[in-house]
Amino acid sequence: MYIELLILIQIEMAPKHGYEIKKEIQRDLGYLTDVNHNMLYPTLRRFTEQGLITKKINEQDGKPNQFVYEITEAGKTKITDLINAFSEKDAKHQIEFLIRVSLFQRISRDNQLRILSMRKKDLEALWEDLKKREGKHVDDWYRNEVLQVSISQVKGEMLWIDELIRKTDS
Asked: What is this structure's pTM?
């Protein structure tokens, strides 16, 4: 899941407390995703139990103590594993795909091409499905407008993926 990956990446960049992790993810990707406390803190607890991160107390005068999280070597390995763990199910979700692409410098060329191909295959199937629906709702102008925007977005992403494949192959 991309949230786990984003949390570990934030901690890898620098030791942070929970609110900082959330704030940085929101700053970077707020338009794509939201990180809530019910997601963040159980994940941090689980990562600590798994030895992927460590937790240290930051004592503050007149304020509640904060826990500061730091990445371990196992956590760094987990980041690479999570980037590479891209499935056909993940290929259906644009955010899962975009997060992986933003981290391509960390994985092999073969895995980059595998991820690009999986997403492209999923988009091709979606594009075919959308094209079949074209013109079926003649009396519903707004529905047709949404369909046209969807077709355009899918086609645009497929062209972008073709360009990424070309750049990765060269």
From this structure: 0.85
